[in-house]
């Protein structure tokens, strides 16, 4: 579906959104108090008119100080009847945040079950920027749809088709190198990881914009991860359709950038190494030593640490163009989730000004990120005895940091480099975020780019 606001209408019903304990609008009369309405989160009070029809409603937002994102999306998940509604924001509410939440609340993944969303529709709150909000929601919906689609319908072929469809829609160029063509193009580690699958591994290269600073985004596209010969237990495989969440987020970000006109002032490149990490006679093996595009050799000590291998070749390719900023997005390590949980992705950056801009933007647009260090003291952990690098250092400590250090070796040449170790999945229902695939970091990047690449 395409997220959108309802057109302005004189017949729209008023929806007063209130913080818990705040005084209610004078138009309400005694009815809300008599009904026990107090403004608790997700609480709804429907207001009757003199003829017994509907005059409007109150929506409780809960405690003003409560750390809850997208709470205006609760309007979609309550007993609010379908129809067109005009939201009256409470004091202190950000109209853009409210508007985004109202659109995100429309999201439903209906490809295999159920009907499309048919709930209440909302006029864009006064003071918000509807075009920018639509762009953010459209990019997020694309990311969610791609992640939520199971691997039998979202393999490398299908992810390429989705990338081509987006490129065609936004007027971007796209080139794809697949199968043994990866060896001819000197992208050997992408080929090694994906060669065992029925659908060929590939590198998708999308370009948009022809002037201004260069932004390169690299997104991990492992359409399904069995773990390879170091096979995962079944419980760990259940969510592995989301292992292409970095690529999905990169495509969602590209859609946001295109719809907000960012390509008018910068040159955008999106590189997606896309594979399925499968088990067959052709699988790469534990103990193999691979030679990367950069020339560095990598000892494979765990075939389930495949994401950093395919990213390495793509980062090397991207860095050869010396972009002003290169960002990698990847569902990379369980260590990041142990450290920060599913809702707070870590990011790594050596440039303080860039990191500060990202941190501020993440907080401002409620797309949280947390800076972690490229800790040079752990460099020795990724250097095995028989090769230049180790894809899976033993010991299990600082796993997200050592993965980031591994990737940094291949990003040299970019002006600045940012790595985001995202999760790409919402494990429980939350306002504006149903259980399932979710974008992380894209809106923060979108908001920070004017400061990072002025």
Automatic annotation (TrEMBL):
Record-listed E.C. numbers:
3.4.11.1
Provide one Gene Ontology biological process annotation.
proteolysis
Q: Record's Pfam families?
A: Peptidase_M17, Peptidase_M17_N_1
- What CDD domains has UniProt attached to this entry? Peptidase_M17
Q: Which GO terms describe its molecular function?
A: manganese ion binding; metalloaminopeptidase activity
Gene3D superfamilies to which the protein is assigned, alphabetical: Leucine Aminopeptidase, subunit E, domain 1, Zn peptidases
Q: One GO cellular component term, please give it.
A: cytoplasm
User: What's this protein's family per the entry?
Assistant: Belongs to the peptidase M17 family.
Database matches in PANTHER family = LEUCINE AMINOPEPTIDASE-RELATED, PEPTIDASE B
Kindly provide the name given to this protein in its UniProt entry: Cytosol aminopeptidase
Tell me which species this is from: Paracoccus haematequi
Gene behind this chain? Answer: pepA_1
């Amino acid at each position: 579906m395409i997220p959108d606001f309802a057109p302005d209408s004189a017949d729209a019903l008023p929806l007063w959104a209130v913080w818990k304990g705040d005084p209610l609008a004078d138009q309400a009369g005694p009815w809300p108090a008599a009904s026990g309405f107090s403004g608790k989160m997700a609480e709804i009070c429907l207001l009757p008119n003199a003829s017994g029809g509907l005059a409007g409603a109150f929506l409780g937002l809960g405690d003003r100080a409560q750390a809850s994102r997208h709470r205006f999306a609760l309007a979609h998940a309550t007993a609010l009847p379908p129809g067109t509604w005009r939201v009256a924001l409470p004091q202190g509410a950000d109209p853009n945040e409210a508007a985004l939440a109202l659109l995100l609340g429309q999201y439903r993944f209906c490809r295999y079950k159920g009907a499309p969303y048919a709930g209440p529709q909302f006029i864009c709150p006064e003071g918000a920027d509807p075009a920018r909000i639509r762009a953010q929601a459209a990019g997020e919906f694309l990311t969610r749809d791609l992640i939520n689609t199971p691997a039998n319908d979202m393999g490398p072929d299908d992810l390429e088709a989705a990338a081509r469809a987006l490129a065609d829609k936004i007027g971007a160029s796209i080139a794809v190198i697949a199968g043994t063509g990866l060896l001819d193009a000197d992208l050997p580690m992408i080929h090694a990881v994906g060669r065992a699958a029925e659908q060929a591994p590939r590198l998708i290269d999308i370009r948009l914009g022809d002037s201004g600073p260069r932004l390169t985004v690299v997104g991990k596209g492992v359409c399904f991860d069995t773990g390879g010969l170091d096979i995962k237990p079944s419980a760990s495989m259940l969510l592995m359709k989301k292992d292409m969440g970095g690529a999905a987020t990169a495509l969602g970000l590209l859609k946001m950038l295109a719809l907000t006109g960012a390509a008018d002032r910068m040159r955008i490149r999106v590189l997606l190494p896309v594979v399925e990490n499968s088990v067959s006679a052709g699988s790469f093996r534990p103990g193999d030593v691979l030679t990367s595009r950069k020339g560095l050799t990598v000892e494979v000590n765990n075939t389930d640490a495949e994401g950093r291998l395919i990213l390495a070749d793509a980062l090397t390719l991207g860095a050869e163009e010396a972009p002003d900023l290169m960002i990698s997005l990847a569902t990379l390590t369980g260590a990041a989730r142990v450290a920060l949980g599913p809702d707070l992705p870590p990011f790594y950056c050596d440039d303080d000004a860039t990191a500060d801009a990202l941190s501020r933007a993440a907080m401002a647009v409620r797309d949280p990120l947390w800076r972690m260090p490229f800790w040079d003291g752990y460099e020795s952990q990724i250097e095995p005895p028989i090769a230049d690098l180790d894809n899976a250092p033993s010991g299990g400590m600082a796993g997200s940091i050592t993965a980031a250090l591994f990737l940094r070796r291949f990003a040299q040449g970019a002006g600045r480099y940012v790595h985001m170790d995202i999760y790409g999945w919402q494990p429980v229902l939350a306002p504006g975020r149903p259980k399932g695939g979710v974008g992380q970091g894209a809106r923060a990047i979108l908001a920070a780019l004017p400061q990072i690449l002025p």
